[in-house]
Structures are given as C-alpha cells and as structure tokens.
Write the structure tokens for this entry.
Amino acid sequence: MSTNEDSIVEESSSDDSSSETEVDEEALIKYYFQRGFSYEEILLLLKKHHNHEMSYSTLLRRLKAYGLGRRGFFTKDDSNISIQMVRQRVSEIIDGPGSSGGYRTIWHTLEMEGLRVPRIIVQDMLKELDPEGTQLRKAHRLKRRSYANRGPNDAWHMDGYDKLKLFGFAIHGAIDGFSRKILWLEVARSNSSPDSIATYYLNTVKELEGCPVRLITDLGTENGLAASMQCYFHDNPDAHRYVSSPRNQRIEGWWSFYSRNRSTWWRNYFKDLESEGVLNSASELHMECLWYCYALVLQNDLNNVKEHWNSHRIRKSRHNTASGRPDSLFYLPEHHGAVGNLLLKVPKSEVDYVSEHIVQMDSSNEYYDYFEYARRSLGLNLPNNWQEADRLYRKLAVISENGI
C-alpha cells in the first residue's frame, strides 16, 4: 500500500504474539475505516494486501469494539464530540492551504482524522464560516474528450507543475490513468533534471515491483531518462509515448484540481510576503532562505494532499470513468469491474542496472549550511506547519541580511 500507510502499520508476521497481532489488526481497520472505505472493501484489502481474513460479522464486532460507526459523531478516543469542536477544526482547516477546498474535501479531512459528522453539517458550516469562498468554488461544467483505460497500471501520466516555481518550488507528480491514484508528488528546486524525474519514476517502480503498460509524458527533454527506463523494462520502444501537454489530460486535469484546492493559497501567501517587503524574489539570499524554511513543510502538505486524494470518493459521471476511491480502484480493480492489475513485473536486476545511470544531485549548499547553523544557534526547531515556517523565515531573513 502507500508509504503513509506503511509508516502507520506493518503486516503481522507469523511469529508475532497474539496481542501484537490484535494491535496491528485494530490499526489497519481504523486506517481503512477513517479513509471511508466500505466494509466490503476493508475486508478485501485486509485479505489481499495483509493476508488477514475475517468475516463480515467479525468486522462489525471489531468496529463496535473500537467505537467506530458510520452514524453519529465519533473521535479517536470514542467520546462524543460537539458541534463547537467540529466548527473549531473546520476553522483551522480553512485558515491555511486547505481553505481552497470545498465542503466534500473538508468533510473527508475530518473523516480521516476520526471526526465523523454528517456532510450537510460541514456544508452549512462552511457557508457560514467562509461565504465568499463558497461562492468562488461553485462548479463549472466542462466539455471533456473521451478517455479509455483498461485497469490499474495500464497508463501512468506524469508531468511537472510550475505555478510555484516563481518562488523556487517546482512540483512533479504522476497519476494512474484508470484509478486516478496519485503515485508521487515531489517538491524540488527544478523540474528540468532528467535524473530527478527518473528517480521519482524508479522509486515507484521499486515500491510496486513493476511498471505500467504505458508511460505518457509531454515532449520535454527532462522526461527522456524515465522514458528510456520504461522502454528498457518492456524491451519495447512503444512502451512510452510523448504527447502535447493538453493531451496529457489525466495529470493536467489533476493539476487544475490542485491549483483550485491547494496551490492558490500558497501562491497568494508568498505574494503577501512580497507585498509586505518580507520576501524579495530577486534576492538569492531570500529565495534560499525561503527554500530552507518551507521546502519540508510544502512536501508534507503534498503528502497530505496525496493521501487525501487517494482515499476520497470519486463520484459517478457521464464520462467513461470508474467511480470509487482511487486506492480502492487501484488495489481492488476486480471489485470495480476492471480487467485486473496490468502491472508488468520488473526483475530487481533490471532495476539495479538502470539505477546506475542516475546521477544523485546534492541539494545542500553554503546557504543551507548557514541557515542550519543560525537556526541551531537560536535554539529553534525545524517547522512542522506554515505558521512555524513563517516565524522561522522572518527571523532568519533578518539575521542573514544584517550579517549576524
């Protein structure tokens, strides 16, 4: 499963004690439940990916024992919550990069945190707390071209996102064509390095132990190394396909979603820093300080966006696309009527061979060393959120400008 999931729970080994097995089972059930998977999907995921089989009635008993239910209000400690608590959390979510998301996005965020609340309440609450934003998020109909895909790993679409590049943050991502599962979202200084993009691709191949039937990219030369690897794994030059950016619609469409629901907040935030005179984008010192303070925070935000998207429900549409949660569509394709997983298994020897052709770039420099020294001298921690990054940036920018 995903990296986030692996960090939360590990599969039980045969020599584990019964108590350890129960803890793992509880963590797995809670993980899938809080991401909104149906009971049937939870049972299938436990069986297929964790070799842990149980009956439907047993799952219901476990859920009851853990204080989990589809109705009512529940928190992680199984205590009833109040509307005021939900309102407070919604206020926190919209006071930051999550402010661009609609009520379904915020409702799913609460669900992932164990706060189960009727969606209509979140919708009404958001209208009250953010009436202007609610109006701006009204949907617009788009005429789309037809897209056909046989199943998971039939095609991966990858591309770079440069809307934050003005502030030194280039983002690269990839999406599975059938399930719309986000395979990676990475922030870097540039999207022009073939080695960096090949690393993202190869890391995913290692994680899944295979590659897609087709890899689809735009015409940029930075995609050449990843394209060569894809063709080498298949021993077929047609395993990769170059298309114009507008035709790489799966990832281009997702970037549009990301822009509306997340990156607009970041762009406006960095522009506000410029307006205040705190940030000078023409200053190399300021830009290096910005990277030092915000790169990890932005990457963590991308990780959250990725997990949120992969576990949210895609509704039925009039277009020829499958509905369901991307993770469920990706890992349980048979459950959704797809032909099955089309992943091509790649031998470790081939992965090791192509790995030798990637040049690992060192991102550290003298600026990084200076800011690291200054931060440690001040006794400050690395930031965990945008507010902490804001405070750290303002302090380091003043210190570096004054030569302290």
Summary: The longest strand covers residues 155-161.
